[in-house]
Amino acid sequence: MTSIRILVGSVYGGALLTARTLKKELEGEGHHVTVLENPVLDDITSNNDALLVCTSTTGQGELPANLLPFYLDLRDQLPQQPGRPFGIIVLGDSSYGDTFCGAGDLMEEALYETAARKVGDTLRIDALETMEPEAEALPWVRGWLEQV
Ligand SMILES: Cc1cc2nc3c(=O)[nH]c(=O)nc-3n(C[C@H](O)[C@H](O)[C@H](O)COP(=O)(O)O)c2cc1C
Residues in domain Flavodoxin-like (predicted)? Predict the structure, then answer.
């Protein structure tokens, strides 16, 4: 059994639906999952749960407004999380070119600066290729959990 905190960034609800689907499925398999729609730093510093970012990309490779305050506080305060496992699921659209899935890179950089430990490769979900991000996220997260 693993305790997981999902940090959600979403504009139109795709990433949020993905996070909620993961919670439902993983809790059915005995894990404990907290979905954070408006995360604050205390949501991660008050526990040692594995961290899973599930965010879309907006603007020009930017973070959605609901995740941005968390990101800025994380960058400002850099609460050290040595060895803490994290994973990244990022939604984007490859037609945006260079900024494809940029939000995931921003979160990865910030978490690395806290000395957290990345587990698995980033899952990049391309809106051009799928209308069901949760269908890609579910098998990925099962593999991720085996490495956490
Ligand atoms: C205004 C706007 C800007 C976007 N900018 C980017 C971008 O820079 N890079 C990218 O990969 N996707 C970009 N996207 C695509 C979204 O990330 C993608 O559609 C995603 O599935 C939306 O997820 P959500 O429903 O959780 O917000 C943008 C979409 C919109 C509407």
Answer: 4-145
User: Average pLDDT of 60-69?
Assistant: 98
- The residue whose C-alpha atom lies closest to atom 7 belonging to ligand 1 is 61
Q: Of all atoms in ligand 1, which is nearest to the CA of residue 57?
A: 17
Q: Is 15 left (phi over 0), alpha (psi -120 to 50) or beta?
A: alpha
Instruction: Measure 27 CA to ligand 1 centroid, in angstroms.
Output: 28
Task: Work out the mean pLDDT of the chain and round it to a whole number.
Answer: 98
Domain 7-136 = CATH 3.40.50.360:
yes
CA–centroid distance, residue 109 to ligand 1 (Å): 20
Percent of the chain with pLDDT over 70: 100
Report the distance separating Cα 85 and Cα 5, nearest Å: 11
Atom of ligand 1 at shortest range from CA of 133: 21
User: How many Å lie between the centroid of ligand 1 and the Cα of residue 108?
Assistant: 18
